[in-house]
């Protein structure tokens, strides 16, 4: 086999694997979408019905039942608050862990990683009791705050890697020019690591939007999120498959669109500093 044939074979295999990965990723979403636009009988008929007339009534129904519209708005609010808090605390924390010597720095760094690995259900009972006592149960700000247990360590670890790629000589030059630590952070680090900060914000937003376990335990009606509302179409005696699948598709779409529009920032951020000149 010639070198050209080998390259062609490698290319074909690479494209084949990529096509397989895309198919495996999209198939569950397309299957759920197919159920959402079928009648109940068509959705569960065997063999599957491939040719049918789409029914869009489930998408109309979800906005007027089960508080889905309010839950959709709650998810937007909680995501914005959660990401904002993570960046406000994570950016200076990541800078301090990178550039400022202090006692216990290594221990704190390791603890941040360990805390991110804790399963979510460990925090549900104590936070439920605490939130009931202080009035944060079933509130948007309460949900955004408890999400910091997981989102903040994740944000700090990502931002640390981005800040580490900024040459220390630039900080030294800024300090010589009379910049304070805060001015150095805002004038040197933030502009140079903007793609990394954007990638951190996007990935944090996706995690918050998709989270279910904590939202299910710490909300009831006023602050329930879109994932909880989608699960609410499951009743005691029956499941509204049309409503549940339609709600699932609607809840997936914002993050799919958001990730598609912001993919440039994700790629730039996650490859920041990967190639050195």
Which secondary structure elements does this structure contain, and how are they paired or packed?
Blueprint: H1 3-36, H2 40-43, H3 57-61, H4 68-99, H5 105-117, H6 124-134, H7 140-164, H8 168-176, H9 181-192, H10 194-210, H11 213-218, H12 226-231, H13 241-261, H14 263-270
Helix pairs in contact: 1-13, 4-7, 4-10, 5-7, 7-10, 8-9, 10-13, 10-14
Number of strands: 0
Classified in CATH, the superfamily of the largest domain is MetI-like
**Could you name the CATH topology of the largest domain?**
MetI-like fold
What sort of overall outline do the alpha carbons produce when their principal axes are compared?
flat
N-to-C order of helices and strands: HHHHHHHHHHHHHH
- Report the radius of gyration as a whole number of Å: 23 Å
**Average pLDDT rating:** 84
Largest sheet geometry: none
Q: Can you tell me the CATH architecture of the largest domain?
A: Orthogonal Bundle
Percent strand equals: under 5%
How many domains? 2
Terminal CA distance: 37 Å
**SS content category:** mainly alpha
Helix content: over 70%
Number of helices: 14
Which residues form runs of ≥5 with pLDDT under 50? none
- CATH class of the largest domain reads Mainly Alpha
How would you describe this protein?
With 277 residues, the protein is an all-alpha fold. It has two domains: 3-55, no CATH class; 58-270, MetI-like (MetI-like fold, Orthogonal Bundle), CATH 1.10.3720.10. It has helices at residues 3-36, 40-43, 57-61, 68-99, 105-117, 124-134, 140-164, 168-176, 181-192, 194-210, 213-218, 226-231, 241-261, 263-270. The longest helix has 34 residues, at 3-36.
